[in-house]
Amino acid sequence: MLDVNKIREDFPILKRKINGKPLIYFDNTATSQKPIQVINAIKEFYEQHNANIHRGLHTCSQEASELYEEAHDKVAKFIGASGREEIIFVRNASEALNLIAFSWGLNNLKPGDEVITTIMEHHSNIVPWYLIAQKNKIKIKFVNITDEGILRYDQFEKMITDKTKVISVVHMSNVLGTINDIEKISKLAHEHDALFIVDGAQSVPHLPVNVKSLDIDFLAFSGHKMLGPTGIGVLYGKEDFLQKMPPFLGGGDMIKSVKCSLDGICDITWNELPWKFEAGTPNIAGGIGLGVAVDYLEKLGMENVRKHEIDITQYALKRLEEIEDVSFFGPRDINVRGGIIPFLKEGMSPHEIAILLDTFGIAVRSGFHCAQPLHLRLGLNRGTARASFYIYNTKEEVDVFIDVLKKIKV
Ligand SMILES: Cc1ncc(COP(=O)(O)O)c(C=O)c1O
Questions:
Q1: If DSSP codes are grouped into helix, strand and coil, which group holds residue 56?
Q2: Cα–ligand 1 centroid distance for 95 (angstroms)
Q3: In the CATH hierarchy, which fold is given to the domain comprising 4-31+301-407?
C-alpha cells in the first residue's frame, strides 16, 4: 500500500487553504496535482540546460536533446512499448487521437467503412471520427452500456462486419470510472482485422497498462493527468503502423531532407520515428517533466496505485450510501471501477453542488465532463458532479466531503 502521508509531502499545493479550509482536491480526472520532483525538474531544465533540441552541437542543446529523448524511453518502458520509436510526444490525449484519425483514418478509410466506438467515450474519441466521417463518408457505430455503466460486450460481436476497420474504445470511463475489458475487445478487433485503438487518458495514470500484453495498436494518454505538466501527451503506436503512416504535421525536425526546385517540385524524406511525428520545437521541458512523473509512479508501483484507489473508492461509495438525497452512478463492482464517482444531490444542479463544495475547500467537477452522449444515454440531462481520487487522497478527506455533502443545500 502507499504511504499517503509521505506522498502528500511531495505536493506543495496540498498545503493550500481554499476559503480558509485545507484544499481537498477531488478533481483528479480533469488533471492531477504535480509533485515537487516534477516541478523541480522543469525549473532545473530552464536554469541549467535550456536550449533547442536536435539542431545544436553545443553542450546545452546536447543535454536538452538527451533529456528529452530519455523521457521517451521512460514512457516506453512504463507502458511496455518496444522503444522510443513507438512513443510520440504530442500535446495531450486529444491530439494523440486526432493524429491517428487524420494520419491513419483519413488515408485508409473508404466510403462505407465502419468505426466502432462506445457511447461512454470522451468527446476526444468521438469528434475526430466524426470529422473523418464527414470527409470520407464512413459510418460510426456506438456500442451501448447497461444502466450501471458496463459495456454491452455482446453488441461488439453483432456490430462487427467486414466493413469494420477500426475499434476505438476508452479504457477507463472519465465519468463512471468503468474499466473496460480491453483484452477481450482487443482479441475481437484483431480476429476481424480491425485496428484497435485505446483511449488510456484515465487508465494509464491509475492502473498498470501494458500495450504488448493487451495487444493495443494505438494508445493515447495525457501527461497532466499522471503527475506531469500540461501541454504534453503521448501517442503509442506499433512501429509497423507508424512507419506506414504519413506525418500529421509538417515542419522542422520531422524531415531528413527537403529539396525543392524553383519550379515548385519538392523531394522530401521523413525523419525516423518518433521524430517524423513531432514537427517543430516540441514541449521540451514538458517532456522531461513527464519523464520524472513516470519515475515517480514507477517508484510507487502501479499495482499499489490501483490498490490505494480501490480502497478509497470502496470507502467513498459506502459512505455515499449513507446520504439519502444523494445518488451516484457507475459499476458497483470495484474490480471494474476506478476512483471516479459521478453523483447528484436532490434539488441541486451539478454546478450548485460544485460551487458550494468549493466554499468548504473541496474541488470537484460539474457538468458533462466532455462526455455528453454518455450522460444523455443515462438520462442525466443536466450532467453530474464528479469526485475523483489519486495517490494523495485520504479517507479523512472523504469523511470531510461526506459531512459537507450532507449539509449543503440551496
Ligand atoms: C477518457 C478521456 N479521454 C480523453 C481526454 C482528453 O484529455 P486531454 O484534455 O488531456 O486531451 C480525457 C480528459 O479528461 C479523458 O478523461
A1: coil
A2: 10
A3: Aspartate Aminotransferase, domain 1 (3.90.1150)
Predicted confidence (pLDDT) per residue in 74-93, tens digit: 999 999 999 999 999 999 99
CATH code reported for the domain at 40-298:
3.40.640.10
Cβ of 170 closer than 6 Å to ligand 1, yes or no, is yes
C-beta 186 within 6 A of ligand 1: no
- pLDDT at position 56 is 87
Q: Determine the pLDDT at residue 262.
A: 98
Peptide linkage before 350 cis (omega within 30 of 0): no
Spatial distance between the Cα atoms of 123 and 129, rounded to a whole number of angstroms = 10
**pLDDT in the model for residue 225:** 98
> Is the C-beta atom of 120 inside 6 A of ligand 1?
no
Sorted by where each begins, the domain ranges of the chain are 4-31+301-407, 40-298
Give distance in angstroms: CA of 105 to centre of ligand 1.
Answer: 20
What are the phi and psi torsion angles at 242 (to 5°)?
A: -60, -35
Give the residue ranges of the chain where pLDDT is below 50.
Answer: none
| Cβ of 171 below 6 Å from ligand 1 | no
Cell 442525466 locates to 380
The pLDDT assigned to 55 comes to 80
How distant, in Å, are the alpha carbons of 129, 245, 282, 348 from that of 215? 22, 19, 29, 44
What confidence tens digit (pLDDT) does each residue in 341-353 have? 999 999 999 999 9
Backbone angles phi, psi at 264, to 5 degrees: 90, 15
Alpha carbon of 178 to ligand 1 centroid (Å): 15
